Amino acid sequence: MGGQVVTGIGFLGAGLIMRDGLSVRGLSGAATIWATGAVGTLAGYGFLLEAAEVTAFVLFANIAFPKLSWIIDHLAPEGDQTERFYTIALRCTDRNEATARTMLIQALNAQSLRLRGLESNTLKDSESVEVRALVHSVQDEDRVIERLVSELSLFPSISSASWTFTTSSE
């Protein structure tokens, strides 16, 4: 019987855990739900003293750990962990689109940059195509991106190349 409780409560707890960029939310809520299931199982099996002990520990953890986390966050040296999103835009003719995409992907791989998205759009009133890549990083990669875009702009099949930077993926 206890195995089914663990499975069911684990399933509910997993539904609370959400990843948002570099941060993960809902871990403490999921742990509390799982611990509550453990308390219920212990009480159901007749281990009332153990259930009370686990309850006291869970209450202590939920009250003390956020305060301890706040203290650690304010005492620890701050590092630059801001997510950065770079948009690289290359313009080329429609017949050179595949070549531009390939060169862009190869250049990103050579620099060990994380490609988050790649799209091509035909520009209105012209035979040009814009190839856009969204690159994700947790550190300042401005110089690397600038050098990469400068090198790509030298290819005859690329008519223009540019990049922008933001701290959100939108």
Descriptive report:
The protein is 51% helix and 26% strand. By secondary structure, it is α+β, with helices and mostly antiparallel strands. A hairpin with a 5-residue loop joins strand 4 (114-122) and strand 5 (128-137). The longest helix is centred in the middle third of the chain and has 28 residues, at 48-75. The protein is elongated. The mean pLDDT is 86.
Describe the secondary structure blueprint for this structure.
Layout: H1 2-16, E1 18-20, E2 23-25, H2 27-44, H3 48-75, E3 84-93, H4 97-110, E4 114-122, E5 128-137, H5 142-153, E6 158-166
Antiparallel strand pairs: 1-2, 3-5, 3-6, 4-5
The stretches of 5 or more residues where confidence is low (pLDDT under 50) are: none
How much helix, percentage-wise, in residues? Answer: 40-55%
Q: How would you sum up the global shape?
A: elongated
One letter per element, helices H and strands E, the order comes to HEEHHEHEEHE
Number of helices: 5
Mean pLDDT: 86
For the biggest β-sheet, the strand order reads: 4-5-3-6
Distance between the termini: 47 Å
Largest beta-sheet characterization: 4 strands, antiparallel
Radius of gyration: 26 Å
Which structural category do the helix and sheet elements fall into? Answer: alpha+beta
Strand content: 25-35%
| SS elements, strand count | 6
Provide a concise account of the structure shown.
The protein is α+β, with helices and mostly antiparallel strands. The chain has helices spanning 2-16, 27-44, 48-75, 97-110, 142-153; strands at 18-20, 23-25, 84-93, 114-122, 128-137, 158-166. The two termini are 47 Å apart.
